[in-house]
Structure formats: C-alpha cells, structure tokens
Specification:
mainly alpha
Length: 187
C-alpha cells in the first residue's frame, strides 16, 4: 500500500528555502564552479543506489539537466546566467543540507523540495535550454551530424542568442535585488 501526501510550499515559506540555499553558498565559498558542479554530480550519482520515494527520484533528474546546462559549450551561458545556475546547484553539492543525504529514505526529501523551488525560479533558463537542445538535435538530424560535434556554428549561435534573450526577458521574478539573487561567485 502506497502512502500519498501533498506538500504545499507557500510564498511565505520560500524565504526559509532561500536561507538554506544561502547557507549552502556560504559553505561553498572558495570553491570553483567546477568543484560545485562535480560535487552536485557526485551527489546525484550517489543518490542512484539509495532507497527513496519516486517523488524524490523523479525530481533529481532535474539536477542533471542543470549540470548539463552549465557544462554545455554549445549553449555557452554568459557568466551572470552561469553563476545563477551554479548558485542553485550549491544546495545539491552540500551534504549537510536541511536533511543530511545519508538519512535513509528521507535524506533527499529536502533536495526534492529545493528542486521544485529551483525549477520555478530558473524556469526561463530551463525552458530556453530545453528548446535549444531540441533545436540542436533537429538541426543535427537534418544535417546528418552528431550533436556532440555541433558546438557553436553560426546557424546555432543565432538560435542560442535568441533563446537566451527570451530567457532573460522572462526572468522578472528574480531580478537583481530580489529573493533569488545569487551570492555565490565562482572562481
């Protein structure tokens, strides 16, 4: 028998999660962007063998997408946008988050909740990157090329620039000075 429950995080609850993210950013101070990405990827890999609810497991795939977004040379995020995504990933790179990841069954529950928050905040980035990947795959298929060999050709550059401009224009909910202005600065 499965137990089904619903968690509602109100706007009043968001500062609690933003503070948790800020604490993770403070603990990550002095780490490079690649160290943050590697730690988030390791956390994701380590989670694969653990017993966890499907609710949690299904959300962890989003972390992999964020890591790919930052590492994708074809997408080529500007430093400000890259910093924003890496800032969100600091929480997943932190083994001492709200519920330590090694707690059986529940260790990644807080990560799943944070993923929901991050997905909402980074929705313009996630949507634009998804559209870019789809466009790149379609164009590669049309040209009979492998997507991994299609870095930033001129035809791809125009679409990338268009999607990133759309991403920034939709970002309104966390413009500088808002609740989700990243404090993490990578080296």
């Amino acid at each position: 028998m499965a137990l089904d429950f619903h968690i509602e995080i109100s706007d009043d609850d968001l500062p609690f999660f933003m503070q948790a993210l800020q604490r993770a950013e403070q603990r990550a101070a002095g780490k490079s962007a690649e160290q943050i990405l590697a730690a988030a990827a390791k956390t994701l890999t380590d989670s694969q063998g653990q017993n966890m609810p499907e609710f949690v497991r299904s959300r962890l795939a989003s972390v992999e997408n964020l890591i790919q977004m930052v590492r994708d040379e074809g997408w080529g995020l500007a430093d400000e946008d890259r910093s924003r995504v890496i800032s969100a990933l600091t929480y997943f790179a932190d083994p001492e988050d709200l519920i330590p990841d090694d707690v059986p069954v529940l260790g990644f529950l807080d990560d799943a909740i944070m993923i929901e928050v991050v997905q909402r905040v980074l929705a313009p980035e996630i949507e634009a990157y998804g559209d870019f990947c789809a466009y790149r795959s379609q164009e590669a298929a049309r040209r009979g090329e492998d997507t991994s060999r299609m870095a930033r050709a001129e035809w791809l550059e125009g679409r990338r620039a268009e999607l990133q401009a759309r991403m920034r224009s939709r970002r309104g909910s966390y413009a500088p000075g808002s609740a989700f202005e990243p404090r993490f600065r990578f080296t």
